[in-house]
Amino acid sequence: xxxxxxxxYLFALILSGMMxxxxxxxxxxxxxxxxxxxxxxxxxxxxxxxxxxxxVAILSAPIARRFVVKMVRAEA
Length: 76
Hints:
By secondary structure, this protein is mainly α. 79% of the residues lie in helices and 0% in strands. 11% of the residues are buried.
């Protein structure tokens, strides 16, 4: 098992993987259509997207948390 300190990084890894998988699939389909070899092109695109998305998710999470805290009213 991992240490609880790893939780934010693991969350970012999993979430960025799932999101980049879906978004790259949609973008690849829109760009080239459902051609022969689509899956290979999609997975190649997804690999690159995930390598970008994961560090972006890790770095942007604290900023997003601050925005959420400012937008949500505290419980009394």
